[in-house]
Each structure stands twice: as structure tokens, then as C-alpha cells.
Amino acid sequence: MHELPIVLDVVRVVEEEAKARGLSRVTKIYLVLGELSSVVDESVQMYFEIVSKDTVCSDAKLVFEYVPASLKCGTCGKVFPHKGSSFQCPDCGGDSVLMRDTGREFYIRSFDGT
Known about the structure:
Elements: H1 3-20, E1 26-34, H2 41-51, E2 61-67, E3 70-73, E4 79-81, E5 96-98, E6 106-113
Parallel strand pairs: 1-2
Antiparallel strand pairs: 1-6, 3-4, 3-5
Helix pairs in contact: 1-2
């Protein structure tokens, strides 16, 4: 449910930028979504279809780019993307911890329009 205000902001920002660029229609919106962001892409899509109606974003396609969380091995220091449920280092097999700087993203990368 917290996706609704997020989608309202996405549509507002894209509408403002489209207007500033002289665009009358937005065809695609590229969103970056981190694994740990707690934003659910299906909910974003559902709310977007409702919120974007009768706007320049109406009928635009959402394109999601997924960013995995990063892990850092406590033994060898290697930083690597989180895959599946394992926290083991692919190089040395050591235990790793989540890094705070990746995987929490949610932002508009760009959009296309006419």
C-alpha cells in the first residue's frame, strides 16, 4: 500500500519533466528498483495504471531495472551481488554481510516520450 504515494510522485515528476521538454505523451518510464527497497513492482504497476489515467503518462510502459543487494565477505573482503539465499563468498566460502550502499534504490532513471 505504501507504493501509492510513490507512484503519485513518479507520475508528478514525469509529467513536470515531460511538460518542460514539450512532450505531449510519455511512452516508457525506466525505474530502478533495489532488492531491499521494500517497493513491490507489481503494486507499482497496478497503482500506475490507475494514477496515470488521463495524464501524459497514460498507457506508458514501466520498465524495471533490478539492483541486487551487495555483500562483503568478512574473510577476504570481496564485494559481490547477493544471489538467492546464500551469504557465502563465491571466492573463499567465507561468511558475508549486507552492505548498506546498494539494493535500497528506487528512482526514475529516464523516460521516453513524443
